[in-house]
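Hi X.,

You mentioned you wanted examples for the new student's onboarding notes, showing what a folding record looks like when two proteins sit in one file. Here is a clean example. The first protein comes first, with its sequence line followed by its structure tokens.
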Amino acid sequence: MSWALNEFFAAVEDEFGVPAGGEEFLETPGAVIDFIVDSTTPADGMDEEQHREHVAGVLGEIMARTLGVTRYNEDSRFIQDLHVR
């Protein structure tokens, strides 16, 4: 795994308290979002849809900060489509 992805997953772990690094199946932003949503509980009275939207928004901020990626689809693969090295 590249240093950029290591930094990304470390930031995800710090933000959500979920160990996400090294998970081979987390190849897309959507997979990461789903993993976090499944591993955490909604806060502050959020319903499940609001919780997923919140996670997606925070994840987008982390991607921008750590990977420099601001335009992506949830199905974009980190290495092949977003060219994260």
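Then the second protein repeats the pattern, sequence line and then tokens:
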Amino acid sequence: MAIRTKPAKQEKRWTAAQLRRLPAKKRDAIMKAAAAMAEQEYRTNRDFTAFEAFGKEDLYGDSGSTETR
């Protein structure tokens, strides 16, 4: 006899408008759970951290410059 398991329940995707209509406690619980999931993804997915924030072309001039723009 085969044992059947239910497929994993797909998480609801909330819009900002839907979240705003929820009571504060429920909204906070949803946001806390989402933040925990995002933290795990951020810590394990190198695509989120394997880049330079600024290149040489992204910064304005010489930091020692006192000229006005």
